[in-house]
Amino acid sequence: MMQEGLDDGPDFLSEEDRGVSFFFPFLISVLSLSSYCVLCMCVSTLPNFKQNEFSVVRQHEEFIWLHDSFVENEEYAGYIIPPAPPKPDFDASREKLQKLGEGEGSMTKEEFTKMKQELEAEYLAIFKKTVAMHEVFLCRVAAHPVLRKDLNFHVFLEYNQDLSVRGKNKKEKLEDFFKNVVKSADGVLVAGVKDVDDFFEHEKTFLLEYHNRVKDASAKSDRMIRSHKSAADDINRIASTLYTLGTQDSTDLCKFFLKVSELFEKTRKIEARVAADEDLKLADLLKYYLRESQAAKDLLYRRGRALVDYENANKALDKARAKNKDVLQAETTQQVCCQKFEKISESAKQELIDFKTRRVAAFRKNLVELAELELKHAKGNLQLLHSCLGVLKGDT
Amino acid sequence: MAASSERSPPPFPDSEEPELLEDSDEGADAFTGTSISEMDSPSPDSTRPPKDIFNEPLEDIFSDPLSNINSEPQKKVDTKIPSPSSDEVVDLFSDPLDDDSEVISSPEVQNPMPDLLNEPVQAPKSDVLGEPPVHKNAARQQYIFEDPPKGSSKSSSVKKAASAELFGDEDEEDLFKELPKVVTKKPQPLGPPVDVFTEVKSDVKVKPQVKDDPTDLFTEEALTAPAPKPSASSSSSRTNGVHSEEHDLFSEATVELSLDSPRNDRKKKDAVKPSVSAPVAPVASSSSKAPSKTLEELEEEESEDTFDLNISVTNPEKVGDGMNAYMAYKVSTQTSLTMFRSKMFTVRRRFSDFLGLYEKLSEKHSQNGYIVPPPPEKSILGMTKVKVGKEDPSSAEFVERRRAALERYLQRVVSHPSLLQDPDVREFLEKEELPRAVSTQALSGAGFLKMLNKATDAVSKMTIKMNEQDVWFDEKIQDVENEEQHMRKLHIMVESLVNHRKELSGNTAVFAKSVAMLGSSEDNTALSRALSQLAEVEDRIEQIHQEKAANDFFTFSELLADYIRLLGAVKGCFDQRMKAWQRWQDAENMLQKKREAEAKLLWANKPDKLQQAKDEIAEWEAKVTQYEREFERISATVRKEVIRFDKEKARDFKRQIIKYLESLLNSQQQLIKYWEAFLPEAKAIA
């Protein structure tokens, strides 16, 4: 029942050659949605892969593991770590599926098909979304000049067995939580430090603002799309009620109702597609940049942290010199901090510029696609209304 | 943006223009189309075109009774007159009309008309008022024509004599001889004379000198016809107010006809009784019943030549302050119907007046099985908001919604042929000051009483077990029940769509703002620009959604709400029919009891009480027949009303849904325009 709807999954997944391309054919264990798998197919011309073409099956947790391994690696402190894909949310669908199964007896055939359609459409949308998110993550990593050489990444792509990554247990989760609290408290402290570099100062204020606004826009777009979807669902229900009204009798009016019902049915499809496409092109874009800007903020935080460390090391060195005690040790610490800070600054600058170009390109691509899709749907709808009106008017 | 906006229009004219053209074409069809056809109809006097146009609806109304009555002999009680018959009317009209029009061009024939005309109405009659009597005359003449085939020798001889005396020419006699012949075959062709007479009337005015003698003869005849029922006419004139005369006379004629029609033949013995009892209450109804009954058969035509009565409810205004405040609406009527004093008039009415009108109408008509269109519900919450709130969008919406509902309500009332005849409707539309409608308040003693009545009705309805003999009714009741249920469901869905659209529009607006903010903080200029453009597009889309929501609501949801109410009224009609049936059954039972009592008395040999018992039996027999007839009448009326309602419903729904889809089409076009304008902006991001 589900799979048939998923067939048009791959059509939007075809990626242009970016050195590495990934294909995610539909290979999802539908029944256990939580531990779902993705088949990653990798075609690579890069020399450091053993083969040119290979594929593995990976779970969502493995993606998270890859991401975390990047974050934890000190080497990559100066880079914007590509944000991890969000956990797919199939809960709503599953709930509906359950309801559908329970209510099968009590519903009319008409309602059942309608529900099924709704569910399928919803499922398809979530599926597309999830696959796209995971793909974007891998593409980002693969496109990154440093990260793509990462050993873990290669293992992730090439090791054709289960990576046996376990999810974090409670203790680790708690640790993570505390780390986050400390980090955000620290972040406030660090953010208060005036930066010597204008570029970073500017980026910092920009990112702070940008992040908040993207967050806002993303939440709003979600709400907008949700109400769009419910409107589409309403249209669907109207169509089915009109249908029952139309089948009641065989008068002229009933035939009329049937035709209108048919129209509503088609309109519903279009409206639902519009909502789904807006979701895919707009909301997901915003959501992605919400995470990406968070990653950029993290980078700035790391740099700020390094700066503070460096300044502290400087102070410690001064103190040590004054006291003439542990000077050597302080000097090395100061050296290390200085090096670290400079390295981060250097790569961060490049990363932030990249971030900007990437963002612009992504927005361009998505907005163009959004406008084109909106146009396509609107024109389709117009066509539909035109022909329907023609038929109805011809009738009366 | 500039470039894009220049770019975008071209595709639209193509798609929009035909659309507009189509619309205007339709308009032409609806209005000028019919009027043109009317103009084309053989009307020789171009001197006063308006009259001709005005004649049209009346002609329908008046020629109608005849066709109905005439067709009755064929069909007896079976009142479901097939539409083909009415079509035939149209066809048949044309042939005899041509023949007649030649003949009638001779001046004598017209004479009867103006005279008769002047007889019932006062002599210095204006053109406008003069018309209906003409029809009535024609109707009566046809009545007279109709007699010969029936073999009532007296009237035919009178007529012969009249024609012989009056019209010496052979032509005339030919005409008259011809006509009855046609009558016997197909009664409908009788219609044409109406046409002809009215048309030539203007000629008559040029030659008034011939008037005199024909007058007498015809008036005599005319007088003999209505003679049996002076009481009815007088009482109805009392109820009908100023313009009553024409109306009365007309109704007289038709009532008369219906009494003579063979349908009532078997009840001839009771014929006296109703005429005696009629003046008490149902005079108005019986008089209005006759035309309406027949009108429905011409529904087809009626729907085409749109009702020449435009009512609009505008300018809702708050009057007063605080809790005593109320909304007054301007009710403007534009009509060419002659029953109104002028062609355009406006009155101010408050909501309770509308309710009062409904109360009056339903009191009078619903027991006869008419579907009285229900007014919009009273909404204490909404009104309180209006009273208290200053300029709240929701209260403005409420007022607009109510205004539109009231307008539709009034239009429904006047489009009902028999309700239009009601003096209260006219009074409502015309009279400057209307007595304050009482007992319409929701929270009053009367309101409470009404609720109580409703409750008892509901209970009694449950207790009445009617074994339905009529399959049609059985099915129809079931259908209406189902339909109402589905409509309710649909209404809920549409309401939820409206809510979601509103929500969507609100969310889109918020999103637009948010995107605008995002755009302002974006440091890439092209992207920032594109984002602010996107915000603009979303802003406009918000407008579209809002329009769509309003459209959903006003054209679709309100339509459904109206029809849910109307279906309630239809159900009320069925209930009235059931009540009539119940009355009949009760009387039947009573009669049975009386008969048993008589038998007992006979057995006991008590001659003194026997006479009394016999009287009682006779009384109850009469009652039974009366109730039975009432039931039959109400069944017939309900049936016609429901058929009429169905037709109207189909028309309404088609019109409204097409309108709805058209507006959807428009918003879709706008949407395309906006996105097309945005596309180059998105592409311009570098």
From TrEMBL, chain A:
GO terms for molecular function: phosphatidylinositol binding. Pfam families: PX, Vps5. CDD domains: BAR_SNX6. Gene3D superfamilies: Arfaptin homology (AH) domain/BAR domain, Phox-like domain. The keyword Transmembrane applies. One of its GO terms (biological process) is retrograde transport, endosome to Golgi. Residues 1-163 form the PX domain. Keywords: Membrane, Protein transport, Transmembrane, Transmembrane helix, Transport. The chain crosses the membrane at residues 20-43. GO terms for cellular component: cytosol; endosome. Involved in several stages of intracellular trafficking. Belongs to the sorting nexin family. This is Sorting nexin. It comes from Sinocyclocheilus rhinocerous. The lineage of its organism: Eukaryota, Metazoa, Chordata, Craniata, Vertebrata.
UniProtKB/TrEMBL annotation, chain B:
SMART domains: PX. Transmembrane segments: none annotated. InterPro entries: AH/BAR_dom_sf, PX_dom, PX_dom_sf, SNX1_BAR, Sorting_nexin_N, Vps5_C. Residues 198-214, 262-272 have a biased composition (Basic and acidic residues). Residues 32-46 have a biased composition (Polar residues). Its main location: other. Belongs to the sorting nexin family. This is Sorting nexin-1. It comes from Sinocyclocheilus rhinocerous.
